[in-house]
Amino acid sequence: MKAPAWNTATEEEAWRFIAAHLAKAGIDTVLVGGAVAAIYSRGAYRSGDLDMHLAMYPLPLQEHLDEAMAAIGFERGGGRHYVHPDCRHLFVEFVGTPLGIGDDYHITPREEMVDGVPVRILSPTDCVRDRLASYVYFGARECLDQAVLVACNRREEIDLEAIRNWARNEGSAMEAAVDELIRPRA
Hints:
Elements: H1 11-24, E1 29-32, H2 34-40, E2 49-54, H3 62-70, E3 75-78, E4 81-84, E5 87-95, E6 110-114, E7 117-121, H4 124-138, H5 141-153, H6 160-170, H7 172-182
Parallel strand pairs: 1-7, 2-5
Antiparallel strand pairs: 1-2, 3-4, 4-5, 6-7
Helix pairs in contact: 2-4, 2-5, 4-5, 4-6, 4-7, 5-7, 6-7
């Protein structure tokens, strides 16, 4: 697979290339966070970073991750962040916490084949739940806006009943957030 034009790469182009490269290096990831919203909103939202959950145990050695990222031009810029000199609009951050949304840790990511290897991303429904969780638990109003963009652009792929059931388990603040999500917009 050919590398994207890093200076103009979208979140989706960068994710597909990086995730496939890492999978070939034996590093299993799931794309989470705002970049998923950018992809599912069809570019109506732009993230600025790729949050990649390290979906393997044990976690890869830091040196192995550094080498795999360096092979495609990314260097660790401190902590969990990786930067590419030609990709100033996006950076990559790796997170190794359990994959969960609110109190739900039974997440089944969407899997796609890219360059002969599986790459994984939150489903549209889980993306909406993830953005709502960030809105409620971190007070990030922009995350509600991202959830709305995804729900509007991927309406046919969103399981609203699953979101409502999850919200009931999360509590009244999450149920109120779902009400805001589905409220008609002027």
